[in-house]
Amino acid sequence: MIKAVLFDIDGVLIDSFEANLRFYQDLFIKTGYERITRERFFELRHMTMYDVITIVTKLENKDEIDRIWKMGKGRAVPYRNSLLKSPEKYDEVIKILHDKYTLGLVTSRIYDGIFTVPQLAKYKSFFKVVVSYEDTKEHKPNPEPLLLALRKLQLKAHEVVYVGDAQSDIDAAKSAHLKVIGYTRSVLTGAGAQTSDFAKIPELIESLP
Predict the structure, then answer these.
(1) Across residues 34-40, what is the average pLDDT?
(2) Which pLDDT score is estimated for 4?
């Protein structure tokens, strides 16, 4: 029986592509590096901030990578919450799931970048477990963040569903032996179910074996 539902944030609970793109563009300009293009960011959009910085700048100097990451973490450039969008039926679905399951967040976002998002802040009390970038050494597709969430919930893997939008989410969930739903229009492999309609998530959870 499913007892908990864990969500990725970016691409699932919020469409953050435009906000994240502008943030990285501003961050790289401020730190003296080339402005990331929309096309390049689309390829990197599921990666952690640290990995995006490393790849885009092509730096090998860890101190310089850390400097830029700390500037990003400290919001040395603004993050435009006004560009964030919620999926259709977001409020309705979150409330339906909260009435039936324990909810949680497992994300590659830094913790300070989670509940500053208005769409998440208003439901902060709904999310009983939160695993952010700083909580683990390894990150998706490594299962460590999801395994940490399991330990915090004190639940078994078959009692938990993870909802993600990237292949790395699916791979991490499968490695942790969680049930997994893909929320995306992209083609993913290994998900127990997949949809691009957020409103269908409750019924898909119930349909999982």
Answers:
(1) 97
(2) 98
Instruction: For residues 31 and 64, give the distance between their C-alpha atoms in angstroms, rounded to a whole number.
Output: 10
Please list, in sequence order, all residues whose beta carbon lies within 8 angstroms of the beta carbon of residue 12, skipping any fewer than 6 positions away.
87, 163, 164, 165, 183
Domain boundaries, the chain: 4-15+85-207, 17-81
CB 188 within 8 A of CB 182: yes
- pLDDT for 6 equals 98
Instruction: Supply 37's token pair.
Output: 């293009």
Interatomic CA distance for residues 54 and 57, integer angstroms? 6
Residue 59's pLDDT band, with cuts at 50, 70 and 90, is very high
Instruction: From residue 26, give the alpha-carbon distance in Å to each of 21, 30, 33, 115.
Output: 9, 6, 10, 22
Q: How long a stretch of residues is the chain?
A: 209
Chosen CATH of 4-15+85-207 out of 3.30.1490.190, 1.10.1740.10, 3.40.50.970, 3.40.50.1000: 3.40.50.1000
| Cα torsion 163, 164, 165, 169: sign | negative
* Sign of the four-CA dihedral 123, 124, 127, 131: positive
Tens-place pLDDT, residues 102-161 = 999 999 999 999 999 999 999 999 999 999 999 999 999 999 999 999 999 999 999 999
